[in-house]
Design a protein that fits this description.
The protein is of the alpha/beta class. The longest helix has 20 residues. The chain folds into four domains: about 210 residues, Spore Coat Polysaccharide Biosynthesis Protein SpsA, Chain A (Alpha-Beta Complex), CATH 3.90.550.10; about 80 residues, no CATH class; about 220 residues, Spore Coat Polysaccharide Biosynthesis Protein SpsA, Chain A (Alpha-Beta Complex); about 55 residues, no CATH class. The chain is elongated, with a radius of gyration of 28 Å. The relative contact order is 0.06. The strands form two sheets. Strands 1, 2, 3, 4, 5, 6, 7, 8, 9 and 10 form a ten-stranded mixed β-sheet that branches. Strands 11, 12, 13, 14, 15, 16, 17, 18, 19 and 20 form a ten-stranded mixed β-sheet that branches. The chain is built from 24 helices and 20 strands. Helix content is about 40%, strand content about 20%.
Length: about 600
């Protein structure tokens, strides 16, 4: 009897992982399968391990190459021998969930499509931990791949299952001798077989590790020409099949996406620019591409003010460059420091076209630097990062997902504090309300606005919302986030909070906060910021509606200095003097200080 599934497993230098891979295959609750392992001449002990599995179970097959043909060549060799009705691709450092084949078999019988898409868990090999978010996050249901959406779907072959006949009747293969092989196969297959069904189940485990094809590519260890050759191959496919005009705009979008990818590969910027120009000229796209590129704006603008952070800025910028979601611009604002920070940024910008440097003629402070970047930003969404902090690799991906699902003007996320002098990480210590808040929708009001942090760096905003409502940071004062936070929270109180620390805030002795806790005069500047909030509340006739939050925030900012008695003692009478001037001192004493 022929097997129902053929599992294609290329094998190359995976002796550490192949046992787990094959054990997951033999653990399948659906037992009608063959697993075709292709030895691609890695030279380690992978084959010996496979041979032991072959002895134990004849469903495990082994094919040997005489020379290394790469991932595509190995898949094609396995595909040629496949006898199953359905094809599943499994990379040899990954593994399947036990019910993978059972779920796929059921779905194929019910959905009557040539392919089924599913999802995968990510497993971080460095920390030996499964990550929470899935690889694709696609919503379930029937979908037709069209020229309008073909560029916007995940092209990985290993989170899709195929009817074998739908591949072989068109003589489809993965392109040999090229990396990024999944893209070409994906475009060809789903142009010819556009209807599919998506299930949201995670049936696959994808291992993120050093030395894999993906991590090598991100580190710049990639043949740049392969990326462009795949695009050329897809274009030839459309021409040969009389589909070029129908898919021309899709191909143009693909060209744009690949060029952006190439220009961000470490150490390859100049070469990628040259090859990009050759590609669009060869395609006859120069004018069309310019128009298309002008229409395309980055999804995110990440704002990074730069001032005397030479010890930290490289880590900050690289944490943004290495985001799992890379459609962005990085706006670095030179605020006229006197160290080597901007030389470091300039060097990074030479290799990454997403980095834009904006220069101030004189030092204007953090608020002004953010405003300069916000006015110059092209992205749909704004994210702020202080240049001594860093982002979790999945920050933009998580935020983008929530913007798309909620349609809100702002998405908030949690953060961790890195105590530099002590070398330890903690949760955000000052705002238990945020720490204890589960993921979901919240409405800001006078009752809770002051309970959440006003910091700009744990929030993302729609740029249009900020510009339209003239929400900018206060300039020339410390605690510039205070006025910005009140304005944003009052104008658009509906928010969504992601229950994950996606930002890492560095607490260091010489930061703005670090200096304020030592110097009462600098600490008093928080009341300059409070005055800006007061004036805004009066102007917009919101003072009575948000009086409690305003007073609460003044008190909480003073209480923040309790651990520093000398500063705290000076701030208490200064706060009373400030509130006397605006006729609110009688109200504040109802709040515990």
């Amino acid at each position: 009897m022929e097997p129902v599934f053929s599992i294609l497993i290329p094998v190359y230098k995976v002796e550490k992982y192949i046992s787990q891979c094959l054990e997951s295959v033999l653990a399948q609750t659906f037992e009608s399968f063959e697993a075709i392992c292709v030895d691609d001449c890695g030279g380690d002990d992978s084959v010996k391990i496979i041979e032991e599995f072959v002895k134990k179970d004849n469903r495990i097959k082994l094919i040997r190459h005489n020379k290394n043909l790469g991932l595509s060549g190995a898949r094609n060799s396995a595909l040629e021998k496949a006898r199953g009705e359905y094809i599943v691709c499994l990379d040899s450092d990954d593994w399947l969930e036990a019910d993978c084949l059972e779920v796929l078999y059921r779905e194929f019988n019910v959905r009557k499509t040539n392919s089924i898409w599913f999802d995968a868990y990510k497993f971080d090999e460095t920390i030996k931990q499964r990550l929470e978010e899935p690889v694709s996050g696609n919503r379930g249901g029937y979908m037709e791949i069209t020229p309008q959406n073909i560029c916007r779907c995940t092209d990985y072959s290993w989170i899709k299952a195929y009817k074998t006949s739908s591949i072989k009747e068109h003589n489809l293969k993965w392109p040999e001798g090229l990396t990024f092989e999944d893209g070409e196969f994906y475009f060809k297959y789903f142009t010819l077989n556009p209807k599919t069904y998506i299930i949201e189940n995670c049936l696959y485990n994808y291992r993120i590790r050093e030395g894999s094809i993906v991590t090598n590519a991100q580190a710049g260890k990639v043949k740049l020409g392969d990326i462009y050759q795949v695009v050329r191959n897809i274009r030839e496919f459309y021409i040969e099949n009389g589909l070029y005009q129908k898919y021309k705009n899709a191909l143009l979008e693909l060209v744009y996406m690949r060029i952006k990818t190439c220009r961000t590969i470490r150490g390859q910027y100049r070469k990628s620019v040259k090859m990009s120009n050759e590609l669009i000229n060869d395609f006859g796209y120069p004018e069309e591409f310019i128009e298309f590129e002008q229409e395309k704006s980055p999804v995110f603008s990440v704002i990074v003010p730069i001032y005397n952070v030479e010890k930290y800025v490289e880590k900050c910028i690289k944490s943004i460059q290495s985001q799992s979601f890379n459609d962005m611009e990085i706006l670095c604002v030179d605020d006229c420091g006197n160290d080597n920070s901007m030389n470091i940024v300039k060097k990074l910008a030479e290799e990454d076209s997403r980095i834009r440097i904006i220069r101030h003629k004189k030092n204007k402070g953090l608020g002004a630097a953010r405003n300069t970047a916000l006015k110059a930003a092209k992205g749909k969404y704004i994210v702020c990062a202080d240049s001594d902090d860093w982002l979790d690799r999945r920050c933009l991906e998580e935020v983008f997902d929530k913007f798309k699902k909620t349609g809100l003007n702002s998405i908030w996320y949690k953060c961790n504090f890195w105590w530099e002098n002590e070398g330890r990480m903690t949760d955000m210590f000052a705002f238990p309300e945020l720490l204890n808040t589960p993921e979901g929708f919240y409405t800001l009001s006078d009752k809770n606005l002051a309970s959440f942090p006003m910091y700009a760096w744990n929030k993302a905003f729609k740029r249009e919302f900020l510009i339209k409502n003239k929400i900018f940071w206060a300039e020339g004062v410390l605690f510039e986030d205070m006025e910005f936070g009140f304005k944003a929270g009052i104008v658009s109180p509906e928010i969504y909070i992601i229950d994950k620390p996606l930002y890492f805030y560095r607490r260091r002795g010489d930061s703005i906060i670090g200096e304020c806790i030592k110097d009462a005069q600098r600490a008093k500047s928080l009341f300059q910021a409070a005055l800006g909030v007061y004036k805004y509340l009066v102007k917009t006739k919101n003072l009575n509606l948000y009086k409690n939050s305003f007073l609460r925030y003044c008190v909480d900012n003073v209480n923040m200095f309790r651990a520093y008695p000398n500063v705290h003692r000076e701030l208490l009478p200064y706060m009373k003097e400030f509130l006397d001037k605006i006729n609110l001192s009688g109200d504040v004493w109802k709040i515990k200080i």
